[in-house]
Amino acid sequence: MSEKFDVVIIGGGPGGYVAAIRAGQLGLKTACIESRGSLGGVCLNIGCIPSKALLQSSEKYEEASHSFAAHGIKLNGIGLDLPTMMARKDKVVTDLTKGVEFLFRKNKVTWIKGKARITAPGKIAVALTDGGSQDVEATSIIVATGSDIVPLPGVEIDEKQIVSSTGALSLAKVPEHFVVIGGGYIGLEMGSVWRRLGSKVTVVEFLDRITPGMDGETGKQLQRVLTKSGFEFKLGTKVVGATKNKKGVTLQLEPATGGERSELTADVVLVAIGRRPYTDGLGLQEIGVALDNRQRVVVDSGYQTNIPGIYAIGDVIPGPMLAHKAEDEGAVLAEILAGQKPHVNYDAIPAVIYTWPEVASVGKTEEELKTAGIAYKAGKFPFTANDRARANGDTEGFVKILADATTDRVLGVHIIGPDAGTMIAEATMAMEYGASAEDIARTTHAHPTLNESMKEAALAVEGHPLHI
């Protein structure tokens, strides 16, 4: 006999586990099918969380090695204990994934360990991890299987010499030369970890700029800062092949526009050219669920597919592949299934790159506003003029606010600087409530804080910042 549920979520990542928890809170009989040995998906296990743990540890190592002396702190015999650093990262992951298990128990969510395949509307066959199979029925099925790495033809990943982000999180030693293929946020973050720990880092990017899609001025500033910290960039360059031997990897390169080939040798190569929706083996096409030309699941405004009772959220549907976007969709969909009428404001979803300085943005870029023909005003304030940034010794970067030229409504905010990922929350809240630049400018900000730069940038929209 099949066990019957109100809601069954396929995938235990940020979108899936949040949908499950919220559905459980709302009194729906809920199950989550996840084949991984722990909950949390890519984000908690091999993505957001372990990478941030290593970024934090590597930043402390770099501060101790290069920055403490300026604060009058003298250290002798600084050394790197990489196994301990990795063990700390693993413990952070374990603690958080166990926390999700606790929340499942607290909210009466059933975790079915196995791989799911939808056999018909409302019916799922599960190949159980421990062997055997189980049939499950559900009034509503939510596909929340996330995304997988995009492979690069001619560059085969072995997770030892040529690695994905997963392998880059668990290297046994610091590479002498670490090459990143792809100038997006994953590559830049992992490059930052290993550069701080002693690697020479080279980024090879097909386009003529890093972080495509980011506000252009902010992206250029990020590249300048990273270059100053030791990164090397090969832009407009295509990787056409790779050969491995005991000494390392040799990449074959050529200009993106065509031309003479060259070679680049490395100890370890990270392939980070993007991610793709993970929909393999779910039975979606067999039962007629519509996919677009990028193999993303097509859904309506309520996240329902063309097959009634089957829904999808997160990385498998259009939109930014961000954990917090998936989480919000999961919570909102659970509430919709419970009869509520929530929504996600897709114009106010922040994005962060956790390099140092950090980069954060929400809303439109200048390039997008120009393309759309929207008249806007820009206000910018540098951290060099912020008292707290000066006291902290972190003065790289700026805050930029873009506001409608007629209404003054905030259309976009872009920050490169210390704790930008935290600061962007203020801008996101402002945009959620339709604030004007003047609203931010007239809001009292505590002194001395980094967030005063937000206030000053808002003042600069009208051309009268106080401290420059």
Helix-strand layout with pairing:
Elements: E1 3-10, H1 14-25, E2 30-34, H2 41-46, H3 48-67, H4 82-106, E3 109-120, E4 123-128, E5 133-143, E6 147-149, E7 162-163, H5 165-168, E8 177-181, H6 185-196, E9 200-204, H7 216-229, E10 232-234, E11 237-245, E12 248-255, E13 262-266, E14 268-271, E15 275-277, H8 284-287, E16 310-312, H9 323-337, E17 351-353, E18 358-363, H10 366-372, E19 376-382, H11 387-392, E20 398-404, E21 410-417, H12 420-432, H13 437-441, H14 452-461
Parallel strand pairs: 1-2, 1-5, 2-3, 5-16, 7-14, 8-9, 8-14, 9-10
Antiparallel strand pairs: 3-4, 4-5, 6-15, 11-12, 12-13, 17-18, 18-21, 19-20, 20-21
Any key phrases for this structure?
globular, FAD/NAD(P)-binding domain, 468 residues, Enolase-like, domain 1, 26% strand, five-stranded parallel beta sheet, alpha/beta, 3 domains, single chain, five-stranded mixed beta barrel
Descriptive account of the structure:
By secondary structure, the chain is α/β, with parallel strands linked by helices. It has three domains: 3-149 and 276-337, 3-Layer(bba) Sandwich (FAD/NAD(P)-binding domain); 162-273, 3-Layer(bba) Sandwich (FAD/NAD(P)-binding domain); 351-461, 2-Layer Sandwich (Enolase-like, domain 1). It has 14 helices and 21 strands. The protein has helices at residues 14-25, 41-46, 48-67, 82-106, 165-168, 185-196, 216-229, 284-287, 323-337, 366-372, 387-392, 420-432, 437-441, 452-461, and strands spanning 3-10, 30-34, 109-120, 123-128, 133-143, 147-149, 162-163, 177-181, 200-204, 232-234, 237-245, 248-255, 262-266, 268-271, 275-277, 310-312, 351-353, 358-363, 376-382, 398-404, 410-417. The strands form five sheets. The protein has a five-stranded mixed barrel. It has a five-stranded parallel beta sheet with strand order 7-14-8-9-10. The chain has a five-stranded antiparallel beta sheet with strand order 17-18-21-20-19, with helices on both faces. A hairpin with a 4-residue loop joins strand 17 (351-353) and strand 18 (358-363). Helix 3 packs antiparallel against helix 4. The radius of gyration is 24 Å and the shape is globular. The termini are far apart. The relative contact order is 0.12. The mean pLDDT is 97.
